Amino acid sequence: MKRGRVVFVTGSGSGMGKESVRLLAQKGFKVYAATRDPEKLSGIFEGEVTPVYMDITDPKSVEEAFYGIERLDVLVNNAGYGLVSTVEDLDEKQMFDQFNVNVFGLLRVTKHSIALMREERSGVIVNISSFLGKIGLPLLTMYNATKYAVEGITDSLRYELADFNIRVHSVMPGFFDTQFARANLVTNARTFSEKSPYAYMVSNLAPRIVEQINRGNDAKEVAALIYRIIEDESFPARVTAGEKARKFIPMRKELSDEDFERRVREYYDL
Ligand SMILES: NC(=O)c1ccc[n+]([C@@H]2O[C@H](COP(=O)([O-])OP(=O)(O)OC[C@H]3O[C@@H](n4cnc5c(N)ncnc54)[C@H](OP(=O)(O)O)[C@@H]3O)[C@@H](O)[C@H]2O)c1
Asked: Which range marks the domain in which residue 131 is found?
């Protein structure tokens, strides 16, 4: 292993973030594990892990999370949550909050990381996107929009940072059994009201998605992929993770928009 490499992971408190911190520390990285609750992470990992408080929605907090970090080799942009709402029911705060965490937050952390990596003329940025960064689903429009944005950020940054030898990748997970459906899906009360004109869609789709997430793949798979991306300088720009992404992403590429939509309608009885 190359000497003392440093990695910064966002959303380290659970799921893919926590497993990435665990694996990278085991592999000998010095890991800064950013989270809203650093106490929860204290002393639970083997290796060199520093839990750091960070509220990704607050630029000052993001800046402070980087105090004392003099060099950085790898950034894992992982923090994110999902808003479940029809577009008709969205309010301004829900719309903004979803982008503030999944997109603006990612950009805040990325800004600070680029400055450090550019000094070293080397670095790897791994964005945890989603297969829903390439595929739409009803009730998840805002979440979809944030993950499509993450895909666009990945593609643009690859050009912007190539001259500084900074690689940018995206991981598109399918459904994974983490805290995501248990603690980090935010539901719109109006959408979930029995009187909603979308009540059939909500009662049909929402429980199935939650079940598919809770019975999804193991977050260790994503951690292992992140490690492979870091180690392999010729790793592709983006990669799928988990069964559902491996099923739907190739189908999305091969079929016309309309044929793909028909398949998804059949699959979810939409
Ligand atoms: N699970 C899935 O099926 C799935 C599928 C595709 C993509 N993803 C993506 O994978 C990433 C990791 O999710 P996960 O599945 O590991 O879920 P998770 O266990 O819920 O972890 C998500 C982490 O994101 C951070 N986070 C959540 N809401 C936040 C908020 N409002 N403000 C700031 N940070 C927040 C939390 O970090 P702290 O509590 O430590 O601050 C949390 O530990 C996310 O970007 C998610 O969109 C998940």
From this structure: 6-268
